[in-house]
Amino acid sequence: MSVKTYAKALNEAYAEAMRSDPSVFTFGEDIEMGLFGVTTGLIEEFGPNRVRNTPISEAALAGMGVGAAIMGTRPIVEIQFADILVISMDHLVQSAAKIRYLSAGKACCPLVVRAPMGIGLNLGMHHSQCVEAWFMNVPGLKIVCPSTPYDAKGLLHSAIKSNDPVLFLEHKRLYGTQEEVPDEPYTIPLSKGDIKRGGSDVTIVATSMMVSRSQEAAEILADEGIEAEIVDPRTIKPLDKEIILNSVKKTGRLVVVHESPKFGGFGGEIAAMVAEEAIDYLQSSIIRVGGREIPVPFASEEAAVPQVQDIVMAAEKICR
């Protein structure tokens, strides 16, 4: 066990998986250099046959990944920015996610597509979006959003071992965050959420960078006598419904937080699920805290996404 950054934890998972399974390889734009440090050093250890730079063609990257996965390898494709996944969407939605269904279960597509998302570098509206909601309506596609270095390493190992396609979304703001992470390989199930903080007054379900902001909000709320429980689903699909429902049944109140715009976002699905399956336990209305209905601006990008105080105010409102 040692302190590692989010990026280093992912890098370790990469290397461990490639050492243990020769069918694992990776390719993407500038991947030999190691964008954000995630693939740094892999080319030196594994060589150009397993760590390949590619031209700037995200559609080709996705298509190559699908084809390689169907033929029995376990490719990890890196799309430099999650916003550009729209160019890859045809292969991911129409091919990767449907292979198991089209083949009556005889074929599978063990593909991992990694993509950095979210604000943090002032890169403007085409390179700063959170895109999980774009893919939530796709049966057969798993979606992972790690919020900590520990989760990132364990979830990437599980994603690589999955026999179905996984969209692995990494928040750019989190790459430099640190915590203790095991030095040996380990897995975290792709269907298991985590309680990041216990509480009895209100449940806050948050993903990716919003988990840490929710934890900051919980500290402020605790000073006011409100104990918030922070639930991190870790994987949006498959979703750990049980951990969310059990928390809501305990607290009777729910706030859902995500960086992407509120309308049509992940929070709406959580709110609907709780309303359908735990409405008798609710003591107040459900509140969603999401991004504003605007493109992420180049300057003052924080103005487009939820702040700690927004989460505090939402919890205060339903705990009165």
UniProtKB/TrEMBL annotation:
Extract the InterPro entries matched here: THDP-binding, Transketo_C/PFOR_II, Transketolase-like_Pyr-bd, Transketolase_C
Q: Where is the Transketolase-like pyrimidine-binding domain?
A: 4-177
Mention one GO molecular function: oxidoreductase activity
Query: What is the name attached to this protein's record?
Result: Pyruvate dehydrogenase E1 component beta subunit
> What species does this protein belong to?
Tepidanaerobacter syntrophicus
Organism lineage reads as: Bacteria, Bacillati, Bacillota, Clostridia, Thermosediminibacterales
- Keyword terms: Oxidoreductase, Pyruvate, Thiamine pyrophosphate
Q: What cofactors does the UniProt entry give for this protein?
A: thiamine diphosphate
